[in-house]
Amino acid sequence: MAAIYPIIQDRARKIVSQFPVPDFYQDFPEANELSRKHLDENRELQLLLKIVDQQLDDDFGHGLRHAIKVTRDAGTLILIEGRRFGYSDERIKRRMFLVQCAGLLHDVMRKQDDHAIIGAAYAEKILQDFSMSSAETRDVCNAIRNHEAFKKTIKLDSPEAEMISDCLYDADKFRWGPDNFTDTLWDMISCANPPLPLFIKKFPKGMAGLEKIKLTFRSHTGIRYGPQFIDIGIAVGKKLYQVILKEFASL
Asked: What is the pLDDT of residue 84?
């Protein structure tokens, strides 16, 4: 990566630090902690984490750090949504396990074309050795299959399957907020290493993509909290773009 990009990344992180933590984390501290604890303490999830760690590269912007954040937030969303529907604690915990499996695996084939489709097929093979029914495996794989924005989704056969799919999608799209400017963008830059003038030229198009994501959240909780993630990301991006034009464009 060109030497200028770590400097710009540092400026981006300082800009992000000026914004409040998204309300999703402030309003649901208990659910966030339970999801984190479930991921850390479940033996099968920790085994899956090790498998995924061997497959993901952070330099493409959707590596292990991304997968863990998505997994934690997907678990939180399932907990919130499950309680909203009146599910039992046991039923919610099982759904949390399934969505966290999907979270860890969702980008495992990120570098492939049609990575969601290929990733779903890969997940089906991996999950054969895990303690889940064929129906549960199908729900996990279908969630992975449906996690891309602006792509045709497949119809799901139950409300619980839809919940798993929607919560994975929303947790993944939360990352288009401030995380985009603290980590994701710079991991992608590290991989592509574009000349700075090209990066500056394409920056407004990337910002326009953030605006489109705001209207795609799927779960009740995601629809309520997701747009704020994106709004923060947009505000950060606008500030950063002005900094780049003022301080770095002439270099």
From this structure: 96
Q: Enter the pTM of the model.
A: 0.95
Distance CA 188, CA 182 (A): 12
- 4-247: CATH topology is Hypothetical protein af1432 (1.10.3210)
> What span, in angstroms and rounded, lies between the C-alpha atoms of 146 and 54?
23
- Rounded to whole angstroms, the Cα distance separating 52 from 40 reads 15
Give the pLDDT confidence score for residue 113 in this predicted structure.
85
List Cα–Cα distances, 220 to 85, 143, 144, 158, in angstroms: 11, 17, 19, 17
Coil/strand/helix, residue 80: helix
CB atoms within 10 A of CB 44: 15
Q: Taking the domains of the chain in order of start, what are their residue ranges?
A: 4-247
Q: What is the pLDDT of residues 16-35, one digit of tens each?
A: 999 999 999 999 999 999 99
Residue type, 181: F
Average pLDDT, the chain: 94
Average pLDDT over residues 197-223: 95
Residue pair 205/237 in contact (Cβ under 8 Å)? The answer is no
Collapse the DSSP code of 28 into the 3-class scheme (helix H, G, I; strand E, B; otherwise coil) and give the result.
coil
**Spatial contact of 63 and 53, defined as CB atoms under 8 Å apart:** no
pLDDT tens digits along 42-60: 999 999 999 999 887 765 6
Q: How far is CA 159 from CA 59, 95, 162, in A?
A: 36, 12, 5
- Distance from C-alpha of 123 to C-alpha of 120, rounded to nearest angstrom: 5
* 229, HSE (Cβ side, Cα atoms, 13 Å): 27
Residue written as token pair 């909780």: 221
Cα separation, 246 vs 55, in Å, equals 39
